[in-house]
Write a structure and sequence with these properties.
The strands form two sheets. Strands 1, 3, 6, 7 and 9 form a five-stranded antiparallel beta sheet that branches. A four-stranded antiparallel beta sheet has the order 2-8-4-5, with no helix packed on it. By secondary structure, it is of the alpha+beta class. It folds into two domains: about 35 residues; about 120 residues, Jelly Rolls, CATH 2.60.120. It is elongated. The protein has one helix and nine strands, in the order αβββββββββ.
């Protein structure tokens, strides 16, 4: 047994303390493996629809927080007179612009990310809690728009 835990002559308490120690050790190993893996990526198609989060609402599928470090909108076809906001939200049907603010998707096809095309309110990274969303919202007329979203993220260490 580890010296950090109290000792007891009660076998049940010894078993519980050993179980807790093993759990903490396994959690440390899992987190170390995740940190060694580096960045993670997901790719999703974007829909040509209007409404808050209707273009895409990507839900954090993990049972821990993640940090979004990059969002790229790979625009393949234009949408005349439209803009896009991308950001984090507690719900799927809310518009947010804390990653990309008012990206013009009606002028030139290309790949646009939150680092170079953040806009006024966009930031280079955001935390995304368990069950929260990154929402992609088109304002204006999305007719003809086609594209994909690429999301880069890292796992957060657990809150102790």
């Amino acid at each position: 047994m580890n010296a950090r835990f109290p000792t007891s002559s009660d076998p049940e308490i010894q078993r519980l303390v050993t179980s807790l120690y093993d759990f903490a050790r396994d959690l440390d190993l899992q987190m170390a493996q995740q940190r060694q893996q580096g960045a993670n990526f997901v790719s999703e198609p974007l829909a040509a629809t209007t409404g808050a989060g209707n273009c895409l609402a990507w839900r954090n599928p993990f049972d821990q927080r993640i940090v979004i470090t990059r969002v790229i909108v790979d625009q393949q076809q234009l949408a005349a007179g439209a803009t896009m906001d991308v950001g984090t939200s507690a719900v799927a049907n809310a518009s947010s612009n804390n990653l990309i603010d008012t990206l013009n998707i009606s002028s030139v096809n290309g790949a646009y990310g939150n680092i170079s095309y953040a806009g006024v309110n966009g930031k280079d990274c955001q935390r995304l809690g368990v069950g929260e969303y990154i929402t992609f919202t088109i304002s204006g007329v999305p007719l003809g728009f086609k594209g994909n979203a690429y999301i880069e993220y890292y796992f957060c260490s657990p809150i102790l």
